[in-house]
ABC transporter ATP-binding protein (Pigmentiphaga soli), 237 residues
Amino acid sequence: MASITLRNVSIDFPLYGTPNRSLKSSLISLGTGGRFAASSRKLTVIRALDDINLDIPAGCKLGLLGHNGSGKSTLLKVLAGVYAPTAGAASMTGHVASLLDVSLGMDDEASGYENILLRGVYLGIPPSAMRSRMDSIAEHSGLGEYLNLPIRTYSSGMRMRLGFAISTSVEADILLMDEWLSVGDAAFQEKASRRLEEVIAKARILVLASHQPELIERVCNRVIRLEHGRVVSDEIL
Ligand SMILES: Nc1ncnc2c1ncn2[C@@H]1O[C@H](COP(=O)(O)OP(=O)(O)OP(=O)(O)O)[C@@H](O)[C@H]1O
């Protein structure tokens, strides 16, 4: 079973050595960014998430909307286990796959094939299991003989293709995505879009942050809106 439960989750980012008084007054007047939480003479704290309570059951395809700095990426990073809550508790049941940074864990000097194994380690998949997916990943990447070369010889689009092919080869109970990935040239984008839709259809839970309400309406069945780190609406679509 897959599920996500957040109870009173807050995330604070302490900003050390900032010119506190002027920063505080300019942050308070901004319509963007997290909430200004506390300060002393030396320390300013931004509360990126403020007392979030969420129950996400299996079958939920949740879209996150909100202004710049409202906390969408921070929330995804809590779900990915990148940030531990400053307060409250987050619990996830199921295998989490994060498409937040598809090239995380890659090594420039290693070949494409070697990077498939390396990236598998970051995704919690042993090399033996990754080897059995090698052919399908190679095919989806469309990189052919380039996979034998060190990835420092790749263009940025080629790296993205490889990262994308690897990340989408992993079956996940919980899939985390930041915006629609724009990967590669037009031909690859079309292929990538189809592949994403397949991966999403298989996931039990999707959490997708986006600035495009139309995309969320197309892909998701529930949407929450964040403002300054708080949930201000939660709707079934
Ligand atoms: N590593 C960090 N250190 C300090 N502050 C941070 C850090 N990461 C995020 N923040 C702050 O937390 C708040 C929420 O940021 P977050 O990236 O979650 O917003 P977002 O909704 O994803 O924004 P966008 O739509 O612009 O991507 C912002 O005020 C941002 O400045």
